[in-house]
Amino acid sequence: MKPPAKTKPASSKRKEKHGECVPGTEEEQFKVKKEGEEKPKRRRKKKISDILAKSAPKPGTPEDVKKLLNEHFGAKRSMIELEELKLPDACFLPPNDLTHSFSSYLKEICPKWVKLRKNHKEKKSVVMLIISSSALRCLELIKSITAFKGDGKVMKLFAKHIKIQEQAKMLEKGVIHVGIGTPGRIKALIEQDCLSLSCLKYVILDWNWRDQKLRRLVDIPEIRKESIDLLEMGLIKLCREGSVKLGLF
Q1: C-alpha distances out from residue 36 to 2, 26, 78, Å
Q2: 167-176 per-residue burial string, b: 16 or more CB within 10 A, e: under 16
Q3: DSSP designation for 240
Q4: For this UniProt entry, which segments traverse the membrane (predicted)?
């Protein structure tokens, strides 16, 4: 009888082939994986709250408003149009230097308020428009205006919990002296002929107040755009003509 033929173990070739595919030891594999995962760290973009938290608050000035309008319209309008959108220094009231309460500031810039209030008889219009960034801030301003307004009627002109139809009816029914609201809702009321600018004498921008994220009215993109659109709707023209004065609180 012939002795049984010797057979090579099948697994040896498989092991060799398998060994060729393995890129070294476990430590080397970990290094390769770690190197592949490492990415250059991106420099975190500074938020406005980071910048403002380290700097002392500065009161708004007429130059800030002029710069805002110029940056917004500069590349979009012709030279003639830009000239019509410029606000001369005579359009501005003295800005708040951050020492005033709201009522004391209004008393200073509008010493003849009692007379203006008594002479105002027209419906669907106001003598003073106060523009702020949020409904909650508007409510704060309404509370703090008590010492100034006297017998004058103040109306909320913001969207939160108040339909525009309700505001339109209120403007039609009674005489309102002061409107305090957000630029988007005020703009909508003017567009729908619910609010007239015919008796307007003062526009106050709540410029210096900052929200929880330290943002001013002009630091919030949507509010900034709505404020500029509102100014362009007719307020700039009235200021240039001298019938309306612009203040920064």
Answers
A1: 59, 15, 53
A2: bbebbeeebb
A3: H
A4: none
Angle, in degrees to the nearest 10, between helices 221-230 and 183-191: 40
Task: Give how far Cα 243 sits from Cα of 21, 65, 84, Å.
Answer: 85, 19, 16
Cα dihedral sign for 145, 137, 60, 53? positive
Torsion of CA 209, 61, 129, 76, to 10 degrees: -110
**pLDDT per position as a tens digit, 114-172:** 999 999 999 999 999 999 999 999 999 999 999 999 999 999 999 988 999 999 999 99
CA angle 204, 210, 214 (to 5 degrees): 155
d(CA 14, CA 98): 82
Residues 6+ apart with CB under 8 A from 100: 108, 249
pLDDT at residue 22 is higher than 60: no
Sign of the CA dihedral running 110, 243, 86, 77:
positive
What is residue 248's three-state secondary structure? strand
Q: What pTM was estimated for this model as a whole?
A: 0.78
